[in-house]
């Protein structure tokens, strides 16, 4: 019997390079993103309807449009959880990606149901800054793709660190619930800076149904439309060959258009249609 963690790890390692190495299909026209503002204003994000734990609204700090020291982006009550360096804009200059996390005791709420008694709902903030003229221009920030923890029965979605390789930012997310569902999955979303925005260029998805043992591994290259699908079960020693298919190549979505990364799957409705030999 193969451990479910091995399934997910193998998928991620095997598929990580497919979007970056493959030749690109002609790209559809993509509207230009708005130019970066002169500064990023303070932002308040309410939890919304259905808030039984009385989780406070998230308050995201104001930030400068340009900086040299990343510490300037992490005011009191925030910390830099992950700091990445690499060229994601293909200009030969190292860029910076930060994941900030708030550290406010008010966001650790009491939970009387399933899950931890003290539930940490502190939010994260993803920062993208392009290297220019000896400093960095803050060109994007996002607090929805790595969603705020709001369900005590869910594992932390960001249990592994993002990384930059071959000009591509990869963000791994994890879904596991200790109550209320049988499905667990890991995903890796791959982004590049294109047309003045951080855009999704590839996505890997590895799912296990804990009640049936069925598995699904799927990888899509959004630059070429190529999709690899493997369906199997956890009790086999060797998975069947991948089924390759092609999906239409459309405009590349920005990270702000994707919403919560755990809820976005570009191939969720794809049928397993094998290409003719």
Structure report:
This protein is mostly beta strands. The chain has helices spanning 4-15, 18-21, 255-258, and strands at 39-40, 43-45, 58-60, 63-64, 66-67, 78-86, 95-102, 108-110, 118-120, 124-132, 135-142, 163-165, 168-175, 183-194, 197-209, 214-221, 226-233, 243-246. It has two domains: 1-22 and 153-277, no CATH class; 34-144, no CATH class. The protein contains three helices and 18 strands. The strands form five sheets. A seven-stranded antiparallel beta sheet has the order 12-13-14-15-16-17-18. Strands 5-11-10-7-6 form a five-stranded antiparallel beta sheet, with no helix packed on it. The radius of gyration is 20 Å and the shape is flat.
Secondary-structure blueprint:
Blueprint: H1 4-15, H2 18-21, E1 39-40, E2 43-45, E3 58-60, E4 63-64, E5 66-67, E6 78-86, E7 95-102, E8 108-110, E9 118-120, E10 124-132, E11 135-142, E12 163-165, E13 168-175, E14 183-194, E15 197-209, E16 214-221, E17 226-233, E18 243-246, H3 255-258
Antiparallel strand pairs: 1-4, 2-3, 5-11, 6-7, 7-10, 8-9, 10-11, 12-13, 13-14, 14-15, 15-16, 16-17, 17-18
């Amino acid at each position: 019997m193969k451990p479910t963690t091995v399934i997910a790890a193998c998928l991620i390692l095997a598929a990580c390079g497919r979007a970056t190495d493959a030749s690109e299909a002609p790209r559809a026209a993509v509207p230009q993103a708005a130019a970066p503002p002169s500064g990023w204003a303070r932002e308040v994000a309410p939890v919304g309807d259905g808030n039984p734990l009385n989780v406070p609204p998230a308050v995201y700090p104001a930030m400068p449009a340009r900086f040299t020291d990343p510490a300037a982006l992490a005011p009191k009550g925030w910390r830099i959880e992950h700091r990445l360096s690499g060229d994601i804009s293909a200009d030969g200059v190292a860029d910076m990606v930060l994941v900030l996390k708030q550290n406010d005791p008010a966001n650790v709420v009491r939970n009387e149901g399933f899950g931890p008694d003290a539930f940490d709902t502190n939010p994260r903030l993803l920062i993208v800054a392009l290297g220019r003229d000896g400093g960095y221009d803050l060109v994007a920030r996002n607090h929805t793709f790595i969603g705020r923890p709001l369900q005590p029965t869910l594992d932390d979605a960001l249990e592994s660190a993002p990384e930059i390789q071959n000009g591509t930012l990869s963000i791994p997310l994890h879904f596991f619930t200790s109550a209320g569902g049988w499905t667990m999955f890991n995903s890796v979303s791959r982004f590049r800076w294109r047309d003045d925005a951080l855009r999704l260029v590839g996505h890997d998805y590895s799912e296990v149904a804990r009640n049936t043992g069925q598995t699904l591994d799927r990888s899509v290259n959004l630059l070429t439309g190529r999709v690899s699908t493997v369906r199997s079960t956890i009790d086999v020693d060797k998975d069947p060959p991948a089924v390759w298919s092609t999906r239409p190549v459309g405009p590349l979505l920005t990270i702000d258009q994707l919403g919560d990364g755990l809820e976005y799957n570009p191939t969720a409705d794809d049928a397993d249609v094998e290409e003719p030999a």
